[in-house]
Write a structure and sequence with these properties.
- With 386 residues, this protein is an alpha+beta fold.
- It has helices spanning 84-93, 156-170, 197-206, 237-242, 286-294, 303-308, 326-337, 367-377; strands at 9-18, 21-26, 29-34, 50-55, 65-72, 75-78, 104-114, 117-126, 132-140, 142-143, 147-150, 174-181, 188-191, 213-218, 227-231, 247-255, 259-262, 268-271, 274-282, 312-320, 340-341, 356-359.
- A 6-stranded mixed beta sheet has the order 7-8-9-12-14-15.
Length: 386
């Protein structure tokens, strides 16, 4: 079995200065490591988690080490997307992907020209009949207890790529996508309609035309080539009921100073310095509602509008759902992990104590808070998966 790395070290995650660099504690020494995966990975990157690194193989590299993996709940997860095509080729050539036993790899980085446009594909496959199969490979690192979703950030490029694959399929090519789900506990797979609704809509449209699969793979600390534990199911009926521009959301903000502020009819309210989480809902145009909250200049309407002009926006987290009582349930869950709340802020039309909650550290990096987001985005879907 092929080993991908000669020397693998364990370190503890301490921070992420930018998309491609992390800071680590390696046996008491603070080191920098290149992260060859630009995904957000908010559900994985928590202070103290174990990361797997290797000495950088480029002498002129800006960092001494390179990240190859991480642990979640004791499970080893591959993060190094540089090896996605190697893994896919290994699985295909060893007939480990159910339903694709007839195919074998003949080329990598294969370019096809169509209507004057050139497109490069990860793998070109063939079979004994001489048929060709253009395959794209994607690494999936967004998981829940038993599910997986892709992508974890908006990808207009990925959406256009799906449309191009369908176009090629209509022209007579055999095309498809292989999602390598780096979590062997995942039983089902869906496009992440919470994060990128347009990608999800496009995937739903083109999926019946493409030859695609999502397979759960299992790694160990040696990072030899993984095994396929099973093919993930595709509960596409969930997209019919849940993948719409409506639901609930959490706005995450930072206030760097104590503040006394007049908030509409509420009068003078006190806000202490820290990070804030505001819970709201939108029965339609959820995306526009979140974008409105991000803007500082606007007509004052909601309680949050008054507060927004005094703080830094960190993130808007949409949760698309058809559940009627999701807003108050989400507010109650966030309150359970927060350190304080602002009484009756944003909750004038319900019985909740508040819809604005605070904590001293950034909740995006707090596992308990991100577990709440995971529960409402993904774990609740387990009951809908048949």
């Amino acid at each position: 079995m092929k080993v991908l790395y000669d020397t693998i070290l364990k370190a503890k995650y301490t921070g992420r200065p930018n998309r491609f660099v992390v800071t680590l504690d390696l046996n008491g020494e603070s080191v920098l490591a290149h992260l060859p995966n630009p995904g957000r990975m908010w559900e994985l990157l928590f202070t103290g988690v174990t990361m797997y690194i290797v000495p950088h193989d480029k002498p002129d590299a800006k960092t001494k080490y390179r990240v190859v993996g991480i642990e979640r709940d004791g499970v080893v997860i591959m993060l190094d997307t540089n090896y996605s095509n190697d893994v896919a080729q290994h699985l295909i050539e060893n007939k480990l992907i159910p339903g694709w036993e007839e195919w074998r790899v003949v080329r990598r980085e294969y370019t096809v020209k169509l209507h004057g446009t050139s497109s490069r594909f990860d793998l070109l496959l063939t079979n004994d009949k001489g048929e060709e199969f253009l395959l794209e490979v994607k690494s999936c690192t967004l998981f829940s207890k038993t599910g997986a979703m892709f992508p974890d950030a908006i990808t207009e490029r990925g959406r256009k790529h799906l449309l191009h694959l369908k176009e090629l399929q209509n022209e007579g090519y055999h095309t498809g996508v292989l999602f390598l789900v780096q979590w062997d506990r995942a039983q089902w797979f869906l496009p992440d309609y919470h994060t990128d609704l347009e990608f999800a809509k496009t995937f739903k449209e083109v999926a019946p035309s493409l030859d695609w699969k999502a397979v759960a793979v299992a790694w160990d600390e040696t990072f030899t080539m993984p095994t396929v534990t099973h093919e993930c199911s595709y509960p596409n009926s969930i997209l019919d009921t849940e993948a719409h521009d409506s639901g609930v959301y959490v706005m995450v903000m930072h206030l760097d100073h104590d503040l006394d502020l007049e908030v509409g009819s509420k009068g003078l309210m006190h806000f202490k310095a820290g990070y804030y989480m505001y819970v709201g809902s939108a029965k339609a145009n959820l995306t526009k509602r979140i974008e409105r909250h991000k803007r500082k200049r606007k007509k004052m309407h909601w309680h949050l509008d008054y507060f927004r002009g005094h703080c830094e926006m960190i993130a808007g987290l949409p949760i698309r759902t058809s559940l009627d009582d999701a807003e108050c349930a989400l507010a109650d869950a966030v309150r359970g992990v927060a350190e304080w709340d602002v009484p009756k802020f944003g909750s004038s039309d319900c019985d909740c104590k508040s819809h604005l909650f605070g904590m001293t550290e950034n909740p995006i990096h707090d596992k308990e808070f991100m577990d709440v987001i995971e529960d409402f985005r993904m774990n609740t879907l387990d009951a809908l998966v048949k």
